[in-house]
Automatic annotation (TrEMBL):
Name under which the protein is recorded: Replication restart protein PriA
Record GO terms (molecular function): 3'-5' DNA helicase activity; ATP binding; ATP hydrolysis activity; DNA binding; zinc ion binding
Residues that coordinate or bind Zn(2+) 1: C434, C437, C474, C477
UniProt keyword annotations, A-Z: ATP-binding, DNA replication, DNA-binding, Helicase, Hydrolase, Isomerase, Metal-binding, Nucleotide-binding, Primosome, Zinc
PANTHER family, per database record: PRIMOSOMAL PROTEIN N
Enzyme class: isomerase
Recorded catalytic activity of this chain's protein: Couples ATP hydrolysis with the unwinding of duplex DNA by translocating in the 3'-5' direction; ATP + H2O = ADP + phosphate + H(+)
Length: 726
């Protein structure tokens, strides 16, 4: 028997595929169990090889797990793009693309279900002879018409009814696969009430319609509250009516039941939801349904981009600037960029929407690679939030707030409105110091001050999560005079309770919203005006609709002005603009005040006076002059180790191997967070105005770097198009 050579992506951290023999050809996308070292691993067939140089050491495929490929052509081609573009191990890419249960080897055909049908006696029994048991009679009648799954019977009848009929041998159970209900959702599809689009919305909707069935990327740049979601809704209407499916990506925290409800209400169909809290079983079910065309709309966070669609019609990425779309470990892909690749592979339109587009996307729109759609007015008559700087130099401060700010808060509260106070730190205070000797309590593994958490009476390191009880004495001089420095959400909450005892307040940060549906309950209560003062972190900035908020206060915006991260101004501008967007969304106009020690700072001036759109275009010019992304391609090689000099040496050696006339090498240098969890962290930045040249050079150099003597002693990784320099 002649054997064939199979190319398999095996889940090991090596940048290559592996060859195995098998007695017959296997299609790409089928899972196989293969021997690897002394283990058996589940890999995915990615192709066949006709010639292999050395066949003597090849092993055979141990078992074939699927009859049909579990990955379709689109997913296979995106996987290949992912491992090539991100220079990542193919087997690990495959495992990111597959649902967890399939990675582990579960069957890819849905588990059979229990069904019931009538027996011969059951068929011959007139239901009204059971008149003393009307529920049984009704159930029998239903099954006489057609068999039904246990799940669907239980929606109407109790298990006792089923049991009674079975015992009388009128019905019987059997196992069968769930039938594929391809496009069944279309029978429920019905467009609900919708507003008339304003002229800008109408232009956007028409432009998207025109490109149906073609690859066409759009940037929908619409100020906060301008009705972007309404554009999505009306743009996908025809797509769904034609029986095609829509995939919508949203930021992790933006995926609220309200968002989902808006789509369900409009179209009357079930919407599949995917996010990090979904169980593996539920995730697999959505994967099956989407793949077989049983579901019309899938809304999900980053990894939902891997959901297979039988009849793809459109992809939407809402808040496309959001950082949660970039994975920051393992396969460091950007879901927005993958969405572009996917839409191009599937020949469908892609809508990237944001009030604060990333500079990358904005540049693509301004250079006409993407069609640029703009919504410059708020919908339904709401007016833009006015933004102002509040100079706090020399001002007495109470709990981080200047007297001027407190006066404004009093005014808004007395008019029955809500006030949102933003502070970028959770916990009570970002540091605990000794008033006697000046010593700061520091996490030894990260060399960063501990954050004080009063509620739990503990110190917590926000870099590694380590916690310890609150000390009563300074560990250096034993003085008991320990004081906190700086302000966090907890402290602000306590302070505001003193200053505004008549106003109910709520704190929203990752500590206070822990637990299922907690955030949702809080958001609902806010809109029922159960609270007047909203205190919180970034979470508050993400897409929420707060009709009663008229004042937004930013406690401190100076930190980001002097950051070592060239993306910090962009991030600050996005945050401030999104926060401002929470106010004045309904009939009441809103205002925003930013407390600062740098009221003349050009960035703040530009943002406050001219808005994000102007700021972003100016920031793009600056990036162009400095030859920074998106005007160059960047890759970071990071290395970390317990012994700093080993990581340093590894990157220095790498740097020598990476020399190239068209690639600029910066570093090695310490990462912005130099030490975390006891490891010293460094990075080497590669930059080039020629993306292709950079990638090809990296592809050829990585085997050399992998073979360096220190490579096995450090943790190192490749980050393509990095967004985070910490
Ligand atoms: N054409 C319209 N006529 C009347 N009301 C509209 C229209 N378009 C949108 N709205 C309403 O205006 C509000 C804001 O719209 P929407 O949520 O779609 O904006 P958005 O741009 O997605 O908001 P954000 O990005 O700030 O979250 C919603 O309450 C929506 O129902
Ligand atoms: Zn730490």
């Amino acid at each position: 028997m002649t054997s064939v050579y199979i190319d398999v992506a095996v889940p090991v951290p090596l940048r290559q595929t592996f060859t195995y023999t098998h007695d017959s050809p296997l299609p790409a996308g089928v899972r196989v169990s293969v021997p690897f070292g002394n283990r058996k691993l589940i890999g995915v067939v990615v192709g066949m090889l006709t010639e292999v140089a050395d066949t003597s050491r090849l092993k055979a495929v141990a078992a074939v797990l699927d009859e049909q490929p579990v990955l379709d052509a689109t997913q296979l081609s995106l996987s290949r793009w992912l491992w090539q573009y991100y220079h990542h191990a193919p087997g690990e890419v495959m495992h990111t693309v597959l649902p967890v249960k399939l990675r582990k080897g579960d069957s890819a055909t849905p588990a059979p279900q229990t069904w019931y049908r009538v027996t011969a006696t059951g068929a011959a029994t007139a239901a009204d002879t059971l008149s003393r048991a009307p529920r049984q009679a009704a159930c029998l009648q239903m099954l006489q018409a057609e068999p039904a799954s246990q799940a669907s019977i239980k929606a109407q009848f109790s298990m006792a009814v089923i049991k009674a009929l079975s015992e009388r041998a009128l019905i019987e159970a059997y196992e069968a696969a769930a039938p594929v209900n391809d496009n069944a959702w279309l029978s429920q599809f019905k467009v609900g009430e919708k507003p008339r689009p304003d002229s800008q919305q109408a232009v956007a909707i028409a432009a998207i319609h025109q490109q149906a069935g073609k690859f066409a990327p759009f940037l929908l740049e619409g100020v906060t509250g301008s009705g972007k979601t309404e554009v999505y809704l009306q743009a996908i209407e025809d797509v769904l009516a034609a029986g095609q499916q829509v995939l919508i990506l949203v930021p992790e925290i933006g995926l609220t039941p309200q968002t989902v409800a808006r789509f369900t209400r409009r179209f009357g169909i079930e919407v599949a939801v995917l996010h990090s809290q979904i169980t593996d079983a539920a995730r697999l079910q959505v994967w099956h349904q989407a793949r077989h065309g049983e579901i019309g709309i899938v809304i999900g966070t980053r990894s939902a981009i891997f959901t297979p669609l039988k009849r793809p019609g459109m992809i939407i990425v809402d808040e496309e600037h959001d950082e949660s779309f970039k994975q920051q470990d393992g396969l460091r892909y950007h879901a927005r960029d993958l969405a572009v690749m996917r839409a191009s592979t599937e020949h469908i339109p892609l809508v990237l929407g944001s009030a604060t587009p990333s500079l990358e996307t904005l540049n693509n729109a301004l250079s006409q690679r993407y069609q640029h759609l703009q919504l410059t007015q708020r919908a339904a008559g709401a007016v833009a939030t006015m933004q102002h700087l509040l100079d706090v130099r020399d001002q007495p401060m109470r709990f981080g707030l200047a007297e001027g700010t407190l006066t404004l808060m009093r005014q808004h509260l007395s008019q029955g409105n809500q006030v949102l106070v933003f502070v970028n730190r959770r916990g009570y205070a970002p540091a605990l110091l000794c008033h006697h000797c000046g010593h700061t309590e520091t996490c030894r593994r990260c060399e960063r001050p501990y954050t004080v958490h009063c509620a739990q009476q503990r110190l917590q390191c926000h870099h590694c999560g380590a916690t310890r009880p609150m000390p009563t004495r300074c560990e250096q001089c034993a003085s008991t005079e320990l004081v906190t420095a700086g302000i966090g959400t907890e402290q602000l909450e306590q302070g505001l309770a003193q200053l505004f005892p008549a106003s109910a307040q709520v704190r929203i940060d990752s500590d206070s919203i822990r637990g299922k549906d907690k955030l949702q309950t809080i958001l609902d209560d806010i809109n029922k005006q159960a609270f007047q003062l909203l205190i919180g972190t970034q979470i508050l900035s993400k897409g929420h609709h707060f009709p009663h908020v008229t004042l937004v206060v930013v406690v401190d915006c100076d930190g980001a002005l002097f950051s070592g991260d060239y993306r910090a101004p962009e991030k600050l501008a996005q945050l401030v603009t999104q926060l401002a967007g929470r106010a004045g969304r309904a009939s009441k106009p809103g205002e925003m005040w930013l407390q600062t020690h740098n009221p003349q700072h050009p960035l703040l001036q530009d943002l406050v006076n001219n808005g994000y759109a102007h700021f972003a275009r100016h920031a793009l010019l600056e990036r162009k002059m400095a030859q920074l992304p998106p005007f160059c391609a960047q890759v970071i090689i990071r290395a970390e180790a317990m012994e700093g000099d080993v990581a340093w040496r590894f990157l220095t050696d790498s740097q020598q191997r990476l020399a190239h006339q068209h690639v600029t090498l910066i570093g090695p240098m310490p990462s912005l967070i130099e030490k975390r969890q006891g490891r010293f962290r460094f990075m080497l930045v590669l930059q080039s105005s020629r993306r292709k040249v950079l990638h090809e050079h990296l592809r050829l150099s990585l085997p050399v770097i992998t073979a360096l003597p220190d490579a096995a002693k450090v943790r190192w990784s490749v980050d393509v198009d990095p967004t985070d320099f910490s």
